[in-house]
Amino acid sequence: MKSVLNSLLLAASLLMCGSHAAADLTETLEIQEIQIVKQTDVRFPATMRSIGVKEGNVSLVIAVDQNGALQDTFILKSSRNAFTKSALKSIGEWEFSPASCNGTPINSALRIDLSFRVDRKLTWQTFQAPMETNVTRSSLEEKPITASLFGELDEIPLPIEIIEPEEVVEGNATIEFYIDEMGSVRCPRLTNGSSLEFGQTMLDTVALWRFEPPVAEGARTNTMVRQTFTFANGRLTAAKAE
Q1: What residue segments make up the domains of the chain, in order of their start?
Q2: Is 207 helix (H, G, I), strand (E, B) or coil?
């Protein structure tokens, strides 16, 4: 399937450079996002209270499979490691209902923003947007974890490894995914498309890609990418990344 691999390399190049003409395929998917069905309290860290820290924030993204099981927890931003640990401990105890596409359960991801305030009830907000987390370097250190917008990176992270799909049917699909500070793709989710089959193919494919680590102001960071892929007339193309 060499031609498909060449098409994927072209798609990755377009993802980085941003140009393309997409086929006009009717979008028919009806996507129901992940739902939180049970949650435990997220505690304000005692270590932070003892040193006079009164507030903190954590933004994380979770990946939930088609059975509702938590598969990955990716820390997108965090003000301090103690808040990261508190968030991870509690999120691992939450229960979820999986996302669905046209009534069929699918793997997907959900962003959750947590706001810690001492002596106040935790506030949180979910954003429909990847048990134990796959921890990246910065989350092991006592310093903030940061994220940068794709368009604000010092350089566009080029692909290091692109896996070709085993089978491709005609269609289009928009995939939202994160590139962590090691260049790995985290927590991809299907946001739109013309068919579940093509959407699932691209979801599984993108999950295996690797990139150069994103860099902003000279330091490694995390970033989110939203990319629309189209396969028509034997050719895979990609719209400008967002």
Answers
A1: 2-238
A2: coil
**What percentage of the chain reaches a pLDDT higher than 70?**
78
Q: Give which of 170, 180, 157 is closest to 75, Cα–Cα.
A: 180
pLDDT of residue 182: 92
Query: Which CATH entry fits the domain spanning 2-238: 3.30.2420.10, 3.40.50.170, 3.40.50.261, 3.90.78.10?
Result: 3.30.2420.10
Is the distance from CB of 21 to CB of 27 less than 8 angstroms? no
d(CA 181, CA 139): 10
Instruction: Report which of residues 42 and 6 the model is more confident about.
Output: 42
Which phi and psi (to 5°) does residue 48 adopt?
-75, -40
DSSP conformation class of 45: P
Angle CA 128–71–73, to nearest 5? 65
